[in-house]
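Holo prediction. Input below; ligand is flavin-adenine dinucleotide.
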Amino acid sequence: MAKAQAVQNHEYEAVIVGAGGAGLYAALEASHACRTAVISKLHPLRSHTGAAQGGIGAALGNLEEDRPEWHAFDTIKGGDYLVDQQAATILAEDAVRAVYDLENRGLPFSRTPEGRIDQRRFGGHTRNMGEAAVRRSCYAADRTGHMILQTLYQQCIKNEVSFFDEFYVLDLLLQGHKVAGLVALELASGAIHVFRSKAVLFATGGFGQMYRTTSNAFANTGDGPALLLRKGLPLEDMEFFQFHPTGILGMGILITEGVRGEGGVLRNKKGERFMERYAPTLLDLAPRDMVSRAIIEEIRAGNGIRGDRKIDDYVHLDATHLGKEVIEAKLPDIADFCRTYQGIDPAEGPIPVQPTAHYAMGGIPTDNDGQVLADGGGVGEGAKPHTLVEGLYAAGECACVSVHGANRLGTNSLVDLVVYGRRAGQHIARFVKEAEAAPAGKDPAGEARALMERLFDGKKGPHGGHIRQEMRELMMERVGIYRTGEEMEVAVRDLQALRERYAQVRAQDKSARFNTDLLELLELGNLLDLSLATAASAANRTESRGAHAREDFPERDDGEWLKHTMLWLEDGKTRIGYRPVDVSRWEPKPRAY
Ligand SMILES: Cc1cc2nc3c(=O)[nH]c(=O)nc-3n(C[C@H](O)[C@H](O)[C@H](O)COP(=O)(O)OP(=O)(O)OC[C@H]3O[C@@H](n4cnc5c(N)ncnc54)[C@H](O)[C@@H]3O)c2cc1C
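Structure of the complex:
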C-alpha cells in the first residue's frame, strides 16, 4: 500500500481543499496573485454544489422592490438571532454584486420576458422585514448549483489554477499557530503527497452523512472540520443542523423549496394546508426549521398521510395546480426525480415528502475574511481579540462565519460560498505577499503514514459499515428535529462507544489503487467525531433556538444562551466554551411569521 511508495513533494503559495462553489471562488481570487492549487477528493464538477437546485438569494429587485437591508434582516431573524449581524450585512450587500459577477462570467440564469435575471420566492425571504414573501432567489431552472460550478471551474482553468483531482487530504501541517502545508493521498495510486504552502483554505462542504435520511451525497463527510478538530482547533455551533422539510419519502433526496416558491403547497391527509396554523403570514414559505417541526406535529397528531403517528410517516407536497408547462420550464429536474424515484408526475399527483437532514449551520469558526479562529474571542469594543491560525482559512458549508446562526434560509448557502469564498481568496492573495513560508518539519508525512500503517497492520477488527449504520440511526433517532437532554446524553455515550470500536477497525482491502474501503474508513472516522461534536454541543444548550428544538427546554433563552458554542476535542473528550454573538444592528425579538 501507500507506505511502500516514496512521498511526492509540491510547493504552492496557496492550497485550496475542495472544489465546490466556495473552494473554486477562493481559488479564482487567490490565483490572480499567486500559484494556487486545488485539491479535491472528487472531480470538481462532482462537488455537491452541483446538486443545489432552487437558487441564490440577492436583493436585485428585478420583479418587485427589494433591499439588501431586508435580506440581512431576514437572514438574522431566520437564524433566530444567533447570526453575527455585520457578517450578515456583508452577505446581503455583496450578494447583489456576486450575482451580477456570476452573470458576467457566463452563468445562464433563467430570465424574465424582458431579459432580466428572473427571481422567485423562497422560505423566510420577505418584503420590508416580514410583510410578505418577496421574489429574491435568482435561479437557473432547478440547476443553479450545477451552473455555478461549471462557470467557476471554467474560470479557474482559464486562470491556470492547478487541479489535483481525486486526492484525499489526510493531514494539515502546522507549526504552532502557523500553516506549513498539508498531506494528501492520491486515490488513483495510493501515493502520499506533501504540499508545502503559506496558506491553506478548507472548503470541504457539509456532513449530512451523519444522519440516516439526508439530502447530502455520500462524499459529504466533513473531512475538513474533523481534521481541524483533531488538530486541537475548535468547532462552532455544531448543535445546529438543518432538516429540510421536503425530502422524497424514504430516500431523503431533495425536492427544492423552489417548488413552494413557485406556489406548491403542503397538505396533510385531510387535504388541509396545515401551514396556515403554524405560520399564518408566510405559510409554506416559513423558514425550514418551522416547516419541518410543523410536519412532525402533523404526523404526531395522526394527520400524516398514513395517519399511524409513526415518525417515518409523511405529508404531501402539492404542485399539481402549477401545471405541466411551469413545472417543466422551472423545475425540470424535480419533475424527473419524481418520475424516477416515485413514479409520479408532479403535474398530476402530489409528491410524498418528509424532512431530510440537509445543512450544517456550524463548522470551522472564521472571521469575515475566512481566517480560522483558534479560540472564542469576541466582537465589538473592548472584546478579547481572536487568536488566528496564520495562513489557515475556511469557507462554504464547512465554515461558520456565522451568517446562518441557528437556522439557514434557503438560497443563502450559495451566497455564502461566493461572497465569503471570494473574500477568503482575496485575503489569501494579500497574505501570501507578506508571509514567510513556515518549515514543514523533518518528516511532514509522518502522521499520515502512521495512520495508514495502523489501518493496514493486518489485524482483524470490527466492520466499519456496521458502525456507520449505527451512527446514522442513532443521530436520526436521538439528535434529530426534536431533542431531549436524556436522549442526547445517551447519544454522546453511544457515540463514544462507537469511536472506541472504530479505533479497532482495519482496512479489509489491501490494494493501493482506488481503495474505496480505505476511503470510507477515513470518512467514517470524521463522521464519528463530528457526530460527537454535534450531540455534545446539543446536549449542552438548554434552550430551543432555530433548528435546535428541545422538548425539555421549549423556549429561547437570550439571557443565558445568546452566545455561540465553541467545542474542542481533547484526549478524546469534548470541552465546551463560548463566543459572543454580534447583535449590533437589530435587537433579538420573538420570531413569528
Ligand atoms: C440537494 C441540495 C440542494 C441545495 N440547494 C441549494 C440552493 O438552491 N441554494 C442554496 O443556497 N443552497 C443549496 N444547497 C446547499 C448548498 O448547495 C451547499 O451548502 C453548498 O453547495 C456547499 O458548497 P461547498 O463549496 O461548501 O462544498 P461542496 O460543493 O460540497 O464541495 C466540497 C468539496 O470538498 C472536497 N473535499 C471534501 N473532503 C475532502 C478531502 N478530505 N480531501 C480533498 N477534498 C475534499 C470535495 O471533493 C468537494 O470538491 C443545497 C444542498 C443540497 C444537498
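The chain has a mean pLDDT of 95. That is the main takeaway for now.
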